[in-house]
Design goal:
The chain has helices at about 1-10, 20-30, 40, 45-55, 65-75, 85, 90-100, 110-125, 135-140, 180-200, 210-220, 220-235, 240-255, 260-280, 285-315, and strands at about 150, 160, 170, 240, 280-285. By secondary structure, the protein is mainly alpha-helical. It folds into three domains: about 1-125, no CATH class; about 145-180, no CATH class; about 180-285. The longest helix has about 30 residues, at about 285-315. The protein is globular.
């Protein structure tokens, strides 16, 4: 009811679930200067779209295309209603439009189009439409993301935004009211660990006992996962990509983690990427990594050719 009243106060539609109204308020009241149309989302760089997803409180990991899909779904649909079952009620024209917005092939009959959209909804899972449970339950008590903090011109006061579940209004702290930075960091780290703990199980709730047992074993070691991610980041200059994810999985396997199931390995890799991003990692996609590897190989080849030509020249002399 509070969210509906806020929406009405600023002349926004107040229909929809709590998550839909919250997303609408964030879009227009917090990110009003950003272009969040489909075209605007398409033009967002990989890192920027991750920051926007984080502001909405939804899953941030994945490829650039997956991030674009997730943000568009979050802004345009109610996850409780846009289900795979609901797709059977949508006509071909609407499915064709959804395929276009989700960057999917547009050819085929209605059944083919429906299957493509269903594939995206399945792969995205609960990554959109609902804010992360750790944010809702254990988010920072007073301040949210760094993006919401801004210094006032007055030296003894600071403006902050309250938790999104409470209000979007700015409040001003009196000089004797201080924000304990250590407490904020501790709360942020605890929220990140709990979010990772919850994310590991998503999609595995109805799995067989063996799979659930493996997930529960890994959940109990989520702090170790966090430490491994931190160690890899320090050793790789704060950069995270597919090679770092592979290294994380190799380290986990050496420690006896149950990662024989490819789906479990994929989930651990995704959670590791989320952790790296929270720690401020510079994420790189596969194409960037391939280019980097290619550049390194070419440099070594050129060096070898140069050395060979020098040796040939010396022998001829």
């Amino acid at each position: 009811m509070d969210l509906r009243q806020r929406a009405e106060d600023v002349d926004l539609a107040k229909s929809g679930s709590v998550e839909v109204i919250r997303a609408r308020l964030i879009q227009h009241q917090i990110l009003g200067d950003d272009d969040l149309s489909w075209e605007g989302i398409q033009s967002m760089p990989h890192k920027e779209i991750g920051e926007v997803l984080r502001i909405f409180g939804i899953k941030t990991s994945g490829s650039h295309k997956e991030r674009r899909q997730r943000l568009w779904l979050h802004l345009n649909f109610d996850s409780r209603r846009m289900t795979i079952e609901r797709l059977a009620e949508i006509d071909r024209e609407r499915l064709h439009e959804m395929c276009q917005r989700l960057e999917l092939p547009l050819t085929g009959n209605r059944t083919v189009l429906m299957g493509r959209v269903a594939g995206v909804l399945t792969s995205q899972g609960q990554g959109w439409g609902r804010i992360k449970r750790s944010l809702r339950r254990n988010g920072l008590p007073d301040v949210v993301e760094e993006q919401f903090m801004e210094r006032d011109n007055q030296p003894n006061s600071v403006k902050i935004r309250l938790d999104l579940d409470q209000t979007f209004d700015e409040i001003e702290l009196e000089p004797d009211e201080t924000v304990e930075s250590d407490s904020i960091i501790d709360n942020a780290e605890m929220a990140a660990l709990e979010d990772a703990h919850d994310s590991l199980l998503l999609g595995f709730e109805d799995s067989d006992f063996e799979t659930q047992g493996a997930i529960l074993t890994i959940q109990a070691r989520v702090a170790d996962l966090d430490r491994m991610v931190g160690t890899i980041l320090r050793g790789h200059g704060g950069v995270w990509g597919d090679s770092e994810t592979d290294l994380l999985l190799r380290l986990a396997k050496r420690r006896g983690w149950p990662l024989s199931n490819p789906k479990i390995s994929q989930r651990v890799g995704e959670v590791g990427t989320d952790m790296a991003e929270i720690k401020g990692a510079e994420l790189k996609n596969s194409e960037e990594e391939i280019r980097t590897v290619d550049d390194d190989i070419m440099k070594r080849i050129r060096k070898k050719i140069s050395e060979s030509q020098t040796l040939i020249g010396e022998n001829e002399n």
